[in-house]
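Handout, section 4.2: multi-component inputs.
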Amino acid sequence: MNSSDFPILKEKIYNSDLVYLDNAATTQKPQVVIDAISYAYSHFNANVHRGVHHLSQLATKHHENARKKVGDFLGTDNPSEIIFTKGTTDSINLLAFSLGEEFIKTGDEIVVSALEHHSNIVPWQMLCKRKQARLKVIPLKTDLSIDIDAFKSLLTEKTKIVSIAHVSNVLGIINPIEEIIRIAHSRGILVCVDAAQSAPHLPINVKSIDCDFLAFSAHKIYGPTGVGVLYGKQELLSKIPPYQGGGEMISHVSFDHTTYNELPYKFEAGTPDFIGSFALAKALDYLQEIGVEKVKNHEAELIDYAQAELKKIEGVIIYALSLPKAGVISFNIKDQHPYDVGMLLDQQGVAVRTGHHCAEPLIDLLCVPGTIRLSVALYNSKEDIDKFVSALKKALLLLRK
Ligand code: PMP
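Output:
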């Protein structure tokens, strides 16, 4: 599907065609996004929000249009609910700090799950340390799905926030976030969704799932690096204090007293990445022109096909085999270190990820040194999966000699 739109896919790696299956780490960029960056620097580079001159107003218009575009992509028509950040990690750090300042006190509880990325663990741990609060972890069932009964019994009147991945970056499992949000809300608990791995693969509507906060990264959804998004309900964002101080986030400054800007600028200290936001908007346009639903179905087919092909190979252990997945498969080969397999795949032009995938607690739970992770994007094809499988077979022939 549309692989010719992505110039990097024509690269040769050690004289082989590139088969890029590390999309969960970052996606490649279509020409329209690459061109957008060059266009922005060539035609409207000027600082936003504070210039009376034409270029500044043009840059501001593009930046604010990008905010509307992101809102539209996530299902909110209120651009004040869209905060531009540097990425998912930055979004969750912002939230953990600002929410923590207003809502968390000694003895309160914050809940995450056992399959989170470090970005959705460490900022909450830091908050717990700051406020003498407690981090609780939702366990997984033996099939590696979220244990909903255990989740319910974890919640107490002290639980203030649940923060959970929509899709696991290690296992690809789609978590039942709507159910989790319903359960948490029925007890007055706020929910943050880490959508880093779902936004590129699944349609998301923040209003219909009713999450309180949601974060994603542009670079994982065909956009540029260094830009991310935090969605938050306006009534909550307006109650919590700013994360960082500086220009843009103020409405008036004196040495005696400073007042803060309105939403969303209160959370956007300093010059925003207005080139990046413009390019992100182009990436979302690109994805929406193809159709998120179409991409979702195409990728689901690839995942099913890859799992079926992998299952035929002796010694392959696929994690969470029977659970619904988006974009990602993790596996190991009996008696082989994932790193060795990854290296031999790379030598044949096949890019996969090996290791703990920034989710060490989950990897510890699996009792393995790491996994081999294959992750797909809209430009991958069954042919890519075939090349990956044949490279894997060759690697195993070498390793098993
Ligand atoms: N959460 C998940 C589920 C992720 O997969 C990632 C990236 N691997 C992150 C958070 C962090 O994203 P970023 O590095 O773009 O901030």
